[in-house]
Amino acid sequence: MGALPEPTDLQVAISVAQQLLDSDQVLSLREALRLLLRALDAEPVSTTVDTPRCPAAHPDDPDPCSGPPVVTVLDTHQVGAHGCEHHATRLLASLDGGRVYPLPDAPEGAAIRVFKAAAVTAPYAWVKRGAGQ
Ligand SMILES: [Zn+2]
Question: What are the start and end residues of every segment in region (Disordered) (predicted)?
Answer without folding.
Answer: 47-67
